[in-house]
Write a structure and sequence with these properties.
With about 220 residues, the chain is of the alpha/beta class. About 30% of the residues lie in helices and about 25% in strands. The longest helix is centred in the last third of the chain and has 24 residues. The protein binds 5-O-phosphono-beta-D-ribofuranosylamine. The site of 5-O-phosphono-beta-D-ribofuranosylamine (GRF) has 15 residues, from helix 1, strand 5 and helix 6.
Length: about 220
């Protein structure tokens, strides 16, 4: 198979999606390898998880730079020094500017714990519970400067159960995230995601045309 694409992961926290991507990337037949893991937070647990997996990991802290452009220039320099071709945001808690994204045109992915465009922003799972939706989920999309916006590559849906706590719903969505993100990144790295008219067209098998019902259908 052709060479693996070089992917950087940006995170600010726990890093469980980074681990899911790294575990997928460790497979010989996976079309990406993780070339660096960078965090804007020096104490992000995801950094030690990355190092434990043998991945290069570093910190580019906002506080060490006088302005957002200077911070983003430092981040950009680290990413290019690592040889990254694509960037996966995985719990990275900063909005990237239009200027930064222009340098990585259509090459930055994000995962968000809702069925976008519903429930953008922080605490998406709590927003879903508060809204009383019966079906929630997660989305992998190409990043645009606006928060949680951009062409959608893949989504997974999960039911919201009647007695769900926030913890239980978050865990159900997170388990789906850990399957969805590696799948979406693989399609992206294989050149099977094409953008037309602001939408992603994905060359992937057609799913069974059945609905997820909640409550279950008779
Ligand atoms: C995930 O829920 C992801 O969808 C959101 O931030 C969370 C990061 O979790 N963008 P982790 O750091 O990958 O465990």
């Amino acid at each position: 198979m052709s060479a693996k694409r070089a992917v950087a992961v940006l995170l600010s926290g726990r890093g469980s999606n980074m681990v899911a991507l790294a575990e997928a990337a460790a497979r010989p037949d996976y079309p990406a390898r993780i070339v660096t893991v960078l965090s804007d937070k020096a104490d992000a647990p995801g950094l030690s998880r990355a190092r434990a997996l043998g991945l290069p990991a570093g910190v580019v802290a906002r506080a060490q730079h006088p302005s957002k452009p200077a911070f983003e220039a430092a981040l950009d320099a680290e990413l290019r020094a690592a040889g990254a071709e694509f960037i996966c945001l995985a719990g990275f808690m900063r909005l990237l500017s239009a200027a930064f994204l222009a340098g990585w045109h259509d090459r930055v992915l994000n995962i968000h714990p809702s069925l976008l465009p519903a429930f953008k922003g922080l605490s998406a799972q709590a927003q879903a519970l508060a809204a009383g939706v019966r079906i929630a989920g997660c989305t992998v999309h190409i990043v645009r400067p606006e928060m949680d916006a951009g062409p959608i590559i893949a989504q997974a849906a999960v039911p919201v159960l009647a007695d769900d706590s926030l913890d239980r719903l978050e865990a159900r969505i997170l388990a789906a995230e850990h399957r969805l993100y590696p799948r979406a990144l693989a399609l992206f790295c294989q050149g099977r995601v094409r953008l037309t008219d602001g939408r992603a067209r994905v060359d992937a098998p057609t799913p069974a045309p059945t609905a997820l019902y909640n409550p279950p259908a008779d």
